[in-house]
From TrEMBL:
Domain PNPLA: 4-170
Catalytic residue list: 37 (nucleophile), 157 (proton acceptor)
Alphabetic keyword roster: Hydrolase, Lipid degradation, Lipid metabolism
Motif interval(s): GXSXG: 35-39
Signal peptide: none
Motif (DGA/G): 157-159
PANTHER family with a match to the protein in the record: NEUROPATHY TARGET ESTERASE/SWISS CHEESE D.MELANOGASTER, PHOSPHOESTERASE
Pfam families from the UniProt entry: DUF6363 (PF19890), Patatin (PF01734)
InterPro entries, alphabetized: Acyl_Trfase/lysoPLipase, DUF6363, NTE, PNPLA_dom, YjjU-like
Gene3D superfamilies linked to this entry: Cytosolic phospholipase A2 catalytic domain
Protein name stated in the entry: Predicted phospholipase, patatin/cPLA2 family
GO molecular function, one term: hydrolase activity
Keyword Lipid metabolism found: yes
Length: 279
């Protein structure tokens, strides 16, 4: 079976949104999806077959201060009003099709980083509730978003430790994978001053989280190398942006975000035959 692996990347995820809409248009049948952070939030709309939904959300709410704004850090201890993003939007303003999602006859997994165990736990679609706690957890970047409690554990962004979860897909039995990245070919993550600050903030109370933050760039680059190795062996088809992705994590320019979305869509249409043959 072929797995679909979705990297995160905050608003760079508009590239993934374009890719997934194109996969719907070419009627690609994929029964296993695994992702983290923005990757899996886009993936949910792919599973529910709501073509264009993620682009619509960006267009409608990008200027809404509740959707994204530094003032939220004071009011909610979060860059986003998480109740607005993961409750009001999917349940009222831009409805998520829970019925179609629940009828999906495959598997979709969302990764969340357990800050106490230091591991990524993967939640399947049966774990979804209408407050979308799983997606909140998978997107919760330390210092910008609060940790999310699920049962007895607290979770942060799944992309901290497993930013490109292809190893999870392989361990679940998928010998081939389509991997959607949100960085250009040749990109390498560098050591981050922000992550070094976060390391100092968390090292006493959450040492496992702190160590992952400190080494995040090493983890990410190793996973990039693994993707390239799989690609060279013909075991993975890697889709990367071909437009410049040197933008902020929370880019606000609609035209740039639409350009990124269009690039994702066009890359699939351009490679339609190759993708169908791979599947």
């Amino acid at each position: 079976m072929t797995g679909l692996v979705l990297e995160g990347g905050a608003f760079r995820g508009l590239f993934t949104a374009g890719v997934l809409d194109a996969l719907i248009d070419i009627e690609a049948e994929i029964k296993y999806i695994v992702g983290v952070s923005a990757g899996v939030t886009n993936g949910y709309s792919f599973v529910s077959k709501q073509r264009g939904r993620n682009l619509e959300i960006m267009n409608r709410f990008i200027d809404n201060k509740r959707y994204i704004g530094y003032g939220n850090l004071i009011k909610f201890r979060s860059l986003m009003d998480m109740d607005f993003v993961f409750d009001e939007i999917p349940n009222k303003l831009c409805p998520f099709d829970y019925k179609s999602f629940n009828e999906f006859d495959g598997k979709v997994l969302a990764g969340g980083f357990n800050i106490e165990t230091g591991k990524v736990d993967y939640f399947d679609q049966d774990s979804l509730d209408e407050k979308n706690l799983i997606l909140r957890a998978s997107c919760s970047i330390p210092m910008l978003f609060p940790f999310v409690k699920i049962k007895d554990s607290y979770y942060a962004d799944g992309g901290l430790l497993d930013p490109i979860p292809v190893a999870k897909s392989i361990s679940d039995g998928n010998d081939k994978n389509i991997i959607i990245l949100t960085r250009n070919y040749g990109y390498r993550k560098k050591e981050s001053k922000t992550n070094n600050i976060a390391y100092k903030v968390y090292k006493k109370k959450y040492p496992k989280l702190a160590n992952v933050l400190k080494n995040r760039y090493i983890i990410y680059n190793k996973q990039l190398d693994y993707c390239k190795e799989l690609e060279d062996k013909g075991q993975a088809l890697v889709i990367r942006p071909t437009v410049d992705m040197n933008i902020g994590r929370f880019e606000r320019d609609r035209l740039r975000l639409k350009e990124i979305y269009d690039n994702g869509y066009d890359e699939i249409i351009k490679n339609k035959d190759k993708i169908i043959n791979f599947l």
